[in-house]
Please model this.
Amino acid sequence: MSNERRDGLYLVLVGSLVFILLGAVFEGGAPAPLADFKTIYFASRTLIQQRDPFNQSEVTRIYQAERESRAPDAAKDRQIATQNIYPPNTLFLVMPFAALPSKLAGILWLIVTFASFITASFLVWNLSADYAPALSGALIGFLLATSELLAVTGNVAGIAIGLSAISVWCFVRGRLVILGIVCLAVSLVLKPHDTGLVWLYFLLAGSTQRKRALKALSVALVLSLPGFVWVWRVAPQWLHEWKVNLAAYSVHGGVNDPGLLSSGGHGLDSLISLQTIFSVFRDDPRFYNTAADLVCGPLLLVWIYLVLRRRSSPCAPWMALAAVAALTMLPIYHRQLDASLLLLAVPGCALLWSQSRIAGRIGLAITATVLMFTGISGWIVVQGLLSVVHPSPTNWGRWLAIALQVFPTPFILLATVCFYLWAFAQQSCGPATASQSRLRD
Model:
């Protein structure tokens, strides 16, 4: 092993240790630890007891009976724990945890989260190390060291994104393909709006990868069927209740409202979709959802065109996945912790760094910036800037405070999409070489 590869491996290892240690410390000290896990845990536990997991009063009975603390809980924490927004197939998949006492289930959930995401990080480094092992190790180590939100919240994104990245390694390397199919299938069941476009890439990437993507979809459907059948038997009206629950989170001032009045959209683990920017100018879902679609729709079409055009290139996976990892965050509801999917942008950055001085430096600057602002470090930077500039309560001061909290992350995500789409369009590496004359000086 070369010194550069050894250094890169050590950086990933250090990032993993920081992720585990700080994640455990922050989770233990959080006012509402594992809040997102509690949503799916108590809903799934309600289903085990043959009750309606989409009826908040039914879930509340289980929640109140099994709460670890007797102290009064905040209304927002209680809503997150008892008003379920996960579909039946996800609840069914989490049942092995829901069958356990809440404290033990939470510990095991954290272990699985750490294991899946760290394993994925080492495998993505293995893919990136072919181009720039030390640089890749630094980027992945930094991403790991700032991903504590996955542990604090216990969100399923940590497992879903980890499994999708593992499937990428399996499919690209052509090894442990069956494992890759199962991992991608489980990730689609757990959080399809995080990993769906990764699946779409493999569907479009050629005959071999298309077969693997279709097999993953088939496995996901098989895994989903029991949950839907069970819930339909226990609660035939679940679909209406589910829509009501989703709407309750998105109302003006709700936890998932992208507007300025949101009770959970800004600050630590903030919303990062484009709706947060557009809602500043007009706080109307019809406006900001349409505006986000008008921006992201053409970008997605360009991405699909480039995938179909460049799929025979050995460089195609890295540019395509780097672009789509950022694009996934923009059109619909996503939070900072979902941006851990940007792990898949590291191989593309490493490839550019190894091939072009100018494009490599630009790619590194953009990738490092987007990793900083989507991790916990971005929130620290914003809070530091707010404390330094002390925005006044005047109109301009208010706008400055809004701009610092809302604009940076969606803008840098959009810049990441545009840059990697441009780099993807410039790719000229053929089947036998990795040279890219158009990206060189």
